[in-house]
Amino acid sequence: MGYVTAVPHPRSQASGSARAGRLSLAVALLCGALGAAVALLATRQSWSEGTATVAGGAFPLTATGSDVTGVPAALAIVGLAALVAVFAVRRGGRVVVAALLALSGAGTVAAALLGASDSSALDEKAAEASGDTSASVAALSHTAWPYVAAAGGVLLLVAGLLALRYGRLWPAMSGRYERDGTPRPRRKAPAVDPDRPEDLWKALDRGEDPTGA
Fold this sequence. Notes:
- 56% of the residues lie in helices and 10% in strands.
- The protein is mainly α.
- The chain is elongated and about 90 Å long.
- The N and C termini lie far apart (66 Å).
- Mean pLDDT is 81; it is low at 175-179.
């Protein structure tokens, strides 16, 4: 009877890690890109509406997300940049960038939720429309777009958490490294025949000394 062991085979462990790395990479890229796009789109939409009393009667007012707060849009851009930068760094640098991505998502969520009930942007517009600095907006109402921006922040946060957990399994932006992170063997330069002028020119193009000096 053959010997049975409960210890997993190293090859199966490597295969499982590679599969987890590919899956987490795909999900993180999707969540990060979609989250940033959703947050940026939401900040351009109307977050609150109301009216201001002017000489001619009620004047309708609208405040977009960027009028209320510029934080979600700024953090969405930072998160998108961090998502790209994750592949340009390794080890400790990758952890730092992944943490920045996660924090960008969390900050986007917090800023969007705080802006969901904000009325200061409309009050400022009411003061401008009426010419009275003490004027405030009437018939105030809020839309669902702040919560859409918060959802985009959640997706950025998920991408950051995935980068923190599985980032070590992801490839880096370098032609000298394979998918598993091991360095590729350097190609040996072809031998130069001094009797062939074309070989001499090719060596010079590569920045080599064809004379061997």
